[in-house]
Amino acid sequence: MKRYDCLKVIRKFVSDEDLVVVSLGGVVDEWHEIRPSGGNLFLEILGAITPVALGLAIALPHRRVFSLDTDGSFFMNTGVLCTLGNQQPKNLTVMVLDNECYECIGGPPTPSSGVVDIAKMAQGAGITNAQTVRTLGELEQALGDASKRKGLSYIVLKLEPGTVRLPLEKRKISDGIEDKYNFLRHVERLENILIKPPCEQK
What we know:
Largest sheet: 6 strands, parallel
Number of strands: 6
Structural class: alpha/beta
């Protein structure tokens, strides 16, 4: 499967009211082009994607949260599986985009290129709804099942390496600081709350 094609399938199951935490690398521009929204939080750092999505899911239990993680990021923080298994947030869907390599730094292999099975690791941590998908049809079925059930879902997408080269006007040009505040204000509007009040004038 190609990542861009998978993201287009995922988009069909993500509403405008949902929150999505996104990993780094080629997925950033691809997801931004497919779903331009203040409801995307682009962290662009390894190891923090699913933990942040987990925190959002716990803080906002009435709202669906998606983690668009990668295998490289996952292997930087495998311990999050233990917290996921113990917490079991019902409104969280984790997807690991597993192309079996660190593509954005030249393609050295990740552990999942060998015998390591991420979905089985998740199952071992108590995440019963963990599975690996290898076709777009399997992905659509898995996301359809996840949208119907009340419970944590964990989906590993086996991908071939490759990034769609988008024209500049379709790429994400904001930086991490801008992304953070765009997301924060988006959540404030969705929830009708004030997270960060304006600075006091002196």
